[in-house]
Amino acid sequence: MADEKTIRALEAIADLVRGSAERGKIEAAVKAARKLAPVPDLAEELSVWEKKLDVILKEPVGREGMARHVSHWIEKLKNN
Fold it and tell me: Which spans in the chain are helix H?
């Protein structure tokens, strides 16, 4: 199911962000998740992350915020 693949892709993003992975790995994970996004709102948010990744990753609070948003989307997909 597409949602399961999307959830796994989002979980990969969360792991990378929390683990202080390098930008290239996170960017690739975001692009992969965006291709699987089952709802336009998620695809749009992933697109914004992709465009602003340098700013997001610059500070720990940005990484934490991204991880929280990823968790939000995972829960939303699981509950639908």
Answer: 2-18, 23-36, 40-51, 53-58, 60-79
